[in-house]
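Example S7 (structure tokens).
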């Protein structure tokens, strides 16, 4: 199960294993296999999925949960109800009599680790328990691997669609793969985030759960809620329902940053602009800010505004300007004009490469991995090098260019009075 069941309200000690079954035959099958795993046979309860939901809504959920769905009229709905009462990291094995591949896929997408068709063979059951135990203990390697101080980078797109999420997932992947750091990708785009999607993972409920219950965020929570992409990369991302706003005062985000900092050697935060406006303190501990920019008029204006904001709100952070989707043909704003307008140099230029972007999406891989050996991959590697260098060095990284007003530098002075008056607002 990529997406652990996460949303719980139980308290107290968690059992290693509990089962809720519908018939004696299944109970008789599970008990001896449970004993083989060192679990109590008394943890095999009668009552199936419904009883599981009722019981777990008022008690701590186990690490491994077996539920029999045979008596459920609406398995998918009931599984979602179960997810509501399960604590982070509970690994769920479901069993049922319906042999339908669509149901199977839907159940897996809902966060079930495995679906066993009844009658269940003891060997299948044993295998399912072995896999479940591996999932439960898997993420613990994260903590053991942590021995370098955490490097924290925030990626901010100065305009929507500039490629911030693309750069964030690639940077996180490279930090793990090339820089050899255990890395967490924290996607703060709660409703529309693509952190998990871009790595072909289910986001799980960890992030939404954290926002709803910030008091529960601790090292153990992080261990269980993060979704593992590979040996060196974990993701915390969400696809929160878009029919309800996420109410938070930002404390959950801050705490997540803190816990991730302790558990990982690298943090890459996909940082939407609205979160920046709402919770500026989230940038307090960040070493590096990667600004994803484009060579357009609107992006030029907002780069100026965000750079000035960063100077006031995150003076400790080194800023890397990454120009993305750059084409060789005429652009709305030339690189030269862009640089003189923002009064500093662009650090990395990432070419527009639709083929690589499409390949990455099709493979469910970060662009840096899918675009190997391309110019784009080289530029992404450069971004990693700059990020690591910036995080390690102390002094400021800005390279000022000649100062002048935006419109004169952009050569737009001839556009008439209306644009001239806009210049005042733009350069404020
Ligand atoms: N260098 C590039 N060449 C071609 N396509 C790219 C490049 N970088 C990003 N893209 C594509 O642009 C689209 C938008 O990218 P992405 O989602 O990363 O932007 P974003 O800034 O995070 O957007 P949002 O404002 O919605 O968060 C994606 O389809 C992505 O594949
Ligand atoms: Mg994004």
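Recovered sequence:
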């Amino acid at each position: 199960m990529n997406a652990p069941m996460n949303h719980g309200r139980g308290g107290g000690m968690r059992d290693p294993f509990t089962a809720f079954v519908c018939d004696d035959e299944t109970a008789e099958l599970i008990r001896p296999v449970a004993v083989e795993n060192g679990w109590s046979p008394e943890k095999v309860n009668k009552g199936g999925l419904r009883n599981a939901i009722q019981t777990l809504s008022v008690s701590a959920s186990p690490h491994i949960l077996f539920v029999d769905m045979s008596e459920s009229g609406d398995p998918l709905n009931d599984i979602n109800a179960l997810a509501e009462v399960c604590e982070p990291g509970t690994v769920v094995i479901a069993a049922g009599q319906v042999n339908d591949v669509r149901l199977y896929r839907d159940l897996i997408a809902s966060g079930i680790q495995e679906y066993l068709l009844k009658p269940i063979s003891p060997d299948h059951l044993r295998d399912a328990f072995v896999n479940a135990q591996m999932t439960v203990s898997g993420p613990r390697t994260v903590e053991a691997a942590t021995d370098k101080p955490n490097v924290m980078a925030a990626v901010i797109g100065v305009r929507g669609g500039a490629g911030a999420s693309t750069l964030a997932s690639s940077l996180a992947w490279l930090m793990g793969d090339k820089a050899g750091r255990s890395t967490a990708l924290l996607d703060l785009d709660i409703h529309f985030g693509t952190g998990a999607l871009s790595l072909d993972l289910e986001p799980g409920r960890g992030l939404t759960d954290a926002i709803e219950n910030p008091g529960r965020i601790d090292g153990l929570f992080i261990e269980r809620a993060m979704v593992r992409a590979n040996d060196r990369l974990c993701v915390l991302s969400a696809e929160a329902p878009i029919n309800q706003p996420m109410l938070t005062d930002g404390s959950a985000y801050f705490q997540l940053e803190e816990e991730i900092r302790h558990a990982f050697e690298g943090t890459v935060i996909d940082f939407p602009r609205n979160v920046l406006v709402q919770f500026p303190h989230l940038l307090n501990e960040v070493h590096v800010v990667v600004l994803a920019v484009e060579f357009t008029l609107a992006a030029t204006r907002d780069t100026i505004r965000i750079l000035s904001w960063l100077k006031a709100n995150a003076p400790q952070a080194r800023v890397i300007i990454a120009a993305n989707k750059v084409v060789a043909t005429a652009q709305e704003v030339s690189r030269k004009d862009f640089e003189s307008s923002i009064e500093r140099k662009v650090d990395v230029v990432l070419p527009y490469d639709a083929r690589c972007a499409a390949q990455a999406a099709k493979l469910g891989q970060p662009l840096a991995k899918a675009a190997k050996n391309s110019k784009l991959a080289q530029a992404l590697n450069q971004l990693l090098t700059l990020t690591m260098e910036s995080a390690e060095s102390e002094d400021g990284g800005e390279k000022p260019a000649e100062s002048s007003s935006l419109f004169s530098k952009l050569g737009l002075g001839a556009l008439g009075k209306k644009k001239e008056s806009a210049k005042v607002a733009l350069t404020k």
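Notes on this example. The longest helix spans residues 375-392.
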